[in-house]
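hiii, so i know i said id send this last week but things got crazy w the move. better late than never?? heres the sequnce for the chain we talked about at the cafe, plus the structure i predicted for it. fair warning i was half asleep when i ran it
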Amino acid sequence: MTSFEDAAEALIDVGRYTDQRGWVPATSGNFSVRLDDGSIAITVSGAHKGRLGRGDIMRLDESGRPREDKRPSAETLLHVQLYRRDPAIACVLHTHSVNATVLSRLADGDLLIEQMEVLKAFPGIGTHRTRVAVPVFANDQDMERLSREIAVRLDEGLDAPAYLIAGHGLYTWGDSVPAALRHLEALEFLFQCEIEMRRIRA
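okay and structure toks below
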């Protein structure tokens, strides 16, 4: 069970953690948690994630409409889309790390990751002998259009709870804040490995 107060504290902790690792530079990124009543706690627009306070977390209704006089992230629709599609999702994290941003520009179609032990951090994967395709979508300031494009791929099913937006960053999620963080850490490790392997091969 998640109250707004508990969600706010969790998001503040996530902000500090991700900022310390350089995954949310300047005021980039946005985080959210689904609350007990189906509403959403989300970071406000323009807040530095490493210095979040209670006033930087706001409440939205199930459709993403603000319940208070604050401005949520411009990408709120992408959070709402995930919560609507899967009632098990409890937390969505969007970051702008160097690794995610660079690989999203280099990927030719999906970003393919295979034969890596840390892939077992994702639900349903029990062996390193697997291959995961992380979708990469073209960046778009029109969130309605972008969400429609993402919806097509979500309908097809994903190998892991994640997608990239080219030149922008990573979206990942989980059935709890710790699960979403585990996926984020795993993806960042895998992205770093992919970059290093590409550097060695060059």
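btw The chain has five helices and nine strands. thought thatd interest u
miss u guys!!
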